Amino acid sequence: MAGFPGSENADLRHVAKTGRLICEAVERVIDGKSDVVRLAVTVLLSEGHILIEDVPGVGKTMLAKALARAIDCSVRRIQFTPDLLPSDITGVSVYNQETREFEFKPGPIFANIVVGDEINRASPKTQSALLESMEERQATVDGRTYRLATPFMVIATQNPVEMEGTYPLPEAQRDRFAVRLAMGYPSPAAEQQMLDTHASRNPLDDLEPVTDAGAVAKAIEAVRSVHVAADVQRYAIDLVTATRRSPELRLGASPRATLQLIKTARAAAALDDRDYVLPDDVRDLAVPVLAHRLLLAPEAHVARRTAVDILADLLRTVPVPAPSVPPWGAMR
């Protein structure tokens, strides 16, 4: 592999292969959703978190469980309900009568993959218990800070806000999710295949791990070495800046969104067996990375516009830099 300065210790050779194996394993459980599965693996390798929003019964939780099973990592599931407390997520210190000391009992947040099922059924106070863990990969309980495992990923599912008994996610919570994706209904052919396979057995029972936590951690480290040229960085900044200036948006994307856009673009390039990012990588990820962070102005609501519609217009107006291959880079 041709290298660039500072990349001697990076090993990108196996990232694409590992990503392909994970995708193939998950697709044996999730029929007909290859784009969704690839995006989920991209977020995993970029150290991000996923918010899956869709109606009940389309496989949101199944996708999360299949991804966790494929990489053979520790996984904990949190069923969010209105009476769930923050300590139910982070853990609690319990007094031990024998030792006469407080012992920390870790909560489900201490796992490689944390599946938050129906996150918007809990109160905003409980949802906020995830903020520190998602951003800083640590949890503070009773004044003590505990580091989380590596890799660490939150895969949260939620039903649309219009569904009865749900709370909208706070802006700070949404901003910590790298992408929001929707499963969508399966095609008739995929649904027929689901009836043939899922009706008789649970496909998760047949899913064998294709990698492990250590290999995933090495792949994440390798992805960080993917080169991002100055013009590609500027393109990402221009896209985010356009959301802040749009009269149709009350709140544009944050600097964290710019960082997530670059990090996911690096992972997408690595999965395509490249050691550099193209403008198309940024463009293709702009909607899933940015749309859920935007707040529409009242006029946009009246016009029945969506964040996706507005981003589509901005993608047409923001100039795309000409793709260029770095002198050390080459398609491999």
Characteristics:
two-stranded antiparallel ribbon, 42% helix, 5-stranded parallel sheet, alpha/beta, 11 strands, disordered N terminus, single chain, Helicase, Ruva Protein, domain 3, 332 residues
Explained architecture:
This protein has a domain at 226-332: Helicase, Ruva Protein, domain 3. Helices cover 42% and strands 14% of the residues. The protein has 14 helices and 11 strands. A 5-stranded parallel beta sheet has the order 2-5-8-1-9. A two-stranded antiparallel sheet has the order 3-4. A hairpin with a 4-residue loop joins strand 3 and strand 4. Helix 1 (15-27) packs across helix 2, helix 2 packs across helix 11 (255-271) and helix 11 (255-271) packs across helix 12. The chain starts with 14 loop residues before the first helix and ends in a 15-residue tail after the last helix. The model is unreliable at 1-10 (pLDDT under 50).
User: Structural class, from secondary structure content?
Assistant: alpha/beta
Instruction: Write down the overall geometry.
Output: globular
Mean pLDDT: 85
**How many strands in all?**
11
Give the termini separation: 7 Å
Overall radius of gyration: 21 Å
User: Beta-strand percentage?
Assistant: 5-15%
| Major beta sheet, strand line-up | 2-5-8-1-9
At the first level of CATH, the class of the domain at 226-332 is Mainly Alpha
Percent of residues in helices: 40-55%
For this structure, the CATH topology of the domain at 226-332 is Helicase, Ruva Protein, domain 3
CATH evolutionary superfamily of the domain at 226-332: Magnesium chelatase subunit I, C-Terminal domain
